[in-house]
Design goal:
Length: 243
């Protein structure tokens, strides 16, 4: 179980409107953790909040485009001020993107890096002061096996995820002395809505992929360890295949 002191404290979950983030938000709320959900789609966020509340949990949502970097730090500071400090932060929002590097326009490259790496940095920066002050907190970055292994046709995505792994590893080393635990989470292919998004062109067999509930549950189990233990890197793969 998540340590008792965490239960009354809110968790920030980015990309909580669908996919892995939604499953994480639902499962945290079911454990009694109040959830603060971030994504762009207001209607889908409202559905998540309603579903959590109908199950007896607590949640609020903020519709934010995390690639709007000019205003992002200010928006995040407002959320932390209003809803924090956060005991748990799941840095999950991200986008898939397929194209050979030779065919990737600079603007697309920048968008992938903005969301998958720079927005993650901004979210982490926003929650750190409260965690440091309380000398307690857990940050999980949802990376990918593509943060450890290169896949042709996924260059911008791999670059963003290798970067996020580096950020997570450095963060873990810097923050352990402040009582903050950091988990770099690297799942293989997950059958989420990512595969339906217009920036992803791939025809993998989705039935062989991990499901979002299993992925969320594996992550939450790692966050449930006592304060003197941390899973600093978790690689979770579909048992039937390597992608
Ligand atoms: N699916 C996989 O195979 C897989 C494997 C390993 C790792 N991952 C990683 O896991 C994370 C979640 O992926 P997923 O599979 O759950 O993808 P998904 O189903 O496409 O969900 C992505 C989430 O991120 C949010 N999001 C996207 N762009 C955003 C933006 N500009 N601002 C704010 N929120 C934004 C989406 O909400 P809105 O559209 O409402 O904004 C949604 O809630 C990502 O970082 C992904 O790279 C995925």
């Amino acid at each position: 179980m998540i340590e008792n002191s965490s239960l009354a404290r809110p968790a920030l979950v980015t990309g909580a409107s669908r996919g892995i983030g939604r499953a994480v938000a639902m499962q945290l709320a079911a454990l009694g953790v109040p959830v603060v959900a971030i994504a762009r789609d207001k209607a889908q966020l409202a559905e998540v909040v309603t579903e959590i509340e109908q199950s007896g949990g607590k949640a609020v949502a903020y519709a934010i485009d995390l690639t709007d970097l000019a205003t992002l730090p200010e928006r995040l500071d407002e959320i932390v001020e209003a809803r924090g400090p956060f005991q748990i932060t799941i840095v999950n929002a991200g986008m898939g993107y397929t194209a050979d590097i030779a065919d990737t326009p600079l603007q697309d490259w920048q968008t992938v890096l903005d969301l998958n790496l720079t927005a993650a940095f901004a979210c982490i920066k926003a929650v750190l002061p409260g965690m440091r002050e309380r000398r307690s907190g857990q940050i999980a970055t949802v990376i990918s096996i593509a943060g450890k292994q290169a896949f042709p046709g996924w260059g911008a995505y791999c670059a963003s995820k290798f970067g996020l792994l580096g950020l997570s590893k450095a963060l873990a080393q810097e923050e352990s002395k402040h009582g903050i635990r950091v988990t770099a989470f690297c799942p293989g292919a997950v059958n989420s809505t990512l595969w339906d998004t217009p920036t992803v062109q791939a025809d993998f067999d989705r039935t062989q992929m991990l499901d979002v509930e299993t992925v969320a549950s594996a992550l939450i189990q790692t966050l449930s360890l006592p304060p003197n233990a941390v899973v600093d890197e978790l690689v979770l793969m579909p048992s039937g295949g390597t992608f």
